[in-house]
Amino acid sequence: MFRTKRSGLVRRLWRSRAPVEGDGETDRGTHGSGGCCMGKTTKVAKSNAGSEAELKALTHSILKKIKEKQLEVLLQAVESKGGARSPCLLLPSKVDAKVGQQSYSLPMLLYKVFRWPDLRHSSELKRLSCCESYGKINPELVCCNPHHMSRLCELESPPPPYSRYPMDYLKPPDSPDSGPSSSETGGTTYSAPVGLSDSLALQESGERAHWCVVAYWEEKTRVGRLYSVQEPSLDIFYDLPQGNGFCLGQLCSENKSPLVQMVRAKIGYGIQLTREPDGVWVYNRSCYPIFIKSATLDNPDSRTLLVHKVFPGFSIKAFDYDKAGSLQRPNDHEFTQQPRTGFTVQISFVKGWGQCYTRQFISSCPCWLEVIFNTR
What we know:
This protein folds into two domains: 5-14 and 53-152, Smad3, Chain A, CATH 3.90.520.10; 212-329 and 337-373, Tumour Suppressor Smad4 (Sandwich). 24% of the residues lie in helices and 22% in strands. The chain has helices at residues 2-15, 25-30, 49-63, 68-79, 106-114, 182-185, 192-204, 258-266, 321-326, 333-336, and strands spanning 90-92, 96-99, 102-105, 125-127, 141-143, 149-152, 212-218, 221-229, 233-237, 245-247, 271-276, 279-284, 290-293, 307-310, 314-319, 344-349, 368-373. Strands 4-6-15-12-11-9-10 form a seven-stranded mixed beta sheet. Strand 2 (96-99) and strand 3 (102-105) form a beta hairpin. Helix 1 runs parallel beside helix 4 (68-79). The protein is globular, with a radius of gyration of 22 Å.
């Protein structure tokens, strides 16, 4: 009976392995044209029968050596695709496995099998802050839970042609040849007074200091109140098993647009916003790309603000406090119009905006977020 249950868990895990190219889901998650996450990813062709059989035999062999309770933890994480909270899977870090001519550590093998078949090196990964192994260097036991990891989003160089904002749009409003008003561009100016007043009200009410506030928008209409964030990590989602955080599905929206309703339903597990020692990170937990604009993602000498595409399973450092201080340029509309509480980052779900999209400005996107950072 003991062996039967263990074998059953192993078989269920193998059936839940990450698909390779041609299975649809992986294509959405790791491939596409353009986007900041494309720097380190390569297309993975379907395995031939020999390598598939070898990988299956090796995976079964390793999994059968793992304790039954640990197999259950791994299965919970894999079958829920990271939606259910699962504890760390602590296993020896120095156990190597060989597939063909390539050797992998035990964690790397599990990450490749259950999340990213195209993963080549551990330098492509970022451990999530919820993991016990976060911040530890070369521990004897390392967490091998595939959903306690994310792929690092590599910024493109040179910048992509889409979503470049002409500097005319960034001139101060009183400039003689200024561009469209902020309400036309979808910038933060028209929403900043609302966000500022709400966030100041939170402080005056005696609540402990927040490090950011989040506003949810559907096209040009803000839905619900600002969400004040005090905890180091926040889940923003539409439908997340055991979800705890900012649930967009609970907000009352009067927008009946079919496109808005379709995108809203695709938000799914959404994103995770985390304040870490080196900055604020955004992890895309959903099944579709997100698009981010942040001043600290740009080259300091750049004359354009870019929108960066982040694929499912990838993380990007969306905001850097040190860079924010040095980037303030007195003649830039983007900076002079920020609320006193700090800088903002804009995040659109599913649909991008910019010069290579039909939507030129984020205010035309169906569902998007405005994150206002408190840098004081």
